[in-house]
Amino acid sequence: MISQILSLIRKSDIMIEVIDSREPDLTRSKKLEEYAMQHGRKVLIVINKADLVPKEILEGWKRKFEYEGREAIYISATKHLGTKILRDKIKEMLKGKEGVVVFVGYPKTGKSSIINALKGKHSASTSKIPMSYGYTRAVQKFKIDSKIYAWDSPGIIPPDGNELEKVIRGINVDKLEDPVRAATLLLERVIKYNPNAINEAYNITFNSPEEFFEKLALKRGWILKSTKEPNIEEAAKAFIRDYHKGKIIYYVPPLSKNDDKISSV
Fold first, then answer.
1. Domain count of the chain?
2. What is the DSSP annotation of 83-141?
3. DSSP 3-state of 19
4. C-alpha closest to that of 131 among 261, 8, 240, 258
5. Taking 50 as the threshold, does the pLDDT of residue 258 lie above it?
6. Same-domain pairing of 174 and 84
7. 44 plus 131 within the same structural domain
8. Are residues 49 and 171 in the same domain?
């Protein structure tokens, strides 16, 4: 899949990297950015899901990326906020000429939703669950306007990194060896940056991750038939899916230090 992405980058004028506003550093690929720039392609970082994060935080990340020599804007594709800014930025970077852009990003960052917003109609493939049946698979080219064309798929970067990074980067929850452990890592990270996020999203109070998953399972009626106990594995998977749907509200400040376990990509 990576080789196909690299091929599309070489066939394009601009690589548009779509990242999640809550976790900008963990949902970007510096390797792809460097590859594009080494091959003379322009790079535009689109901070998507901007409706989930305060404007001052978005501006901070934008300045950080610009300091690194990347063009950056923020947008909320699902809310149709910033679509014109993105379109105008592409035109500016193409200097009014005809050109092709390629959208890349980890699963669930919102690549296809952005294309849909740019086109003004639902014509790119989308799915709500990471890498589930129906997500974009074949190479498709879209006409955004009279001078802008865009590739979609296979611009999905395979989720990599450690266990927490893979969850944040949209790994299919059904492929997780231990979804409860993975969800616990995500839960702990969310609480680190917003202690009230879980109660705000679920109206559940708890003293431990296990208690949270038990209460969530009970709240949604997920009971194991064999033992009559709460199905915490199903609750853990649902929590990860809810995260990708934008239900969990928190953000990482641009100048904060990430956990030592978080590697740079």
1. 2
2. HHHHHHHHHHHHTTS-EEEEEEBSTTS-HHHHHHHHHTS--S---SSTT-TTS--S-EE
3. strand
4. 240
5. no
6. no
7. yes
8. no
Same structural domain for residues 91 and 54?
Answer: yes
User: Please, what sign has the CA dihedral across residues 117, 122, 123, 126?
Assistant: positive
- The predicted pLDDT at position 247 comes to 96
Give the lowest-confidence range in 24-38, 49-63, 76-90. Answer: 76-90
125, 152, 179 - which closes a domain: 152
Q: What is the pLDDT of residue 153?
A: 57
Between the alpha carbon of residue 74 and those of residues 50, 110, 132, 139, 252, the distances in Å are: 6, 12, 26, 26, 15
> Which domain, by its residues, includes 234?
163-244
pTM comes to 0.87
- The span from the CA of 247 to the CA of 202, in Å, is 9
Side by side, the strands of the sheet bearing 148-152 are: 71-74, 42-48, 14-20, 99-104, 148-152, 140-143
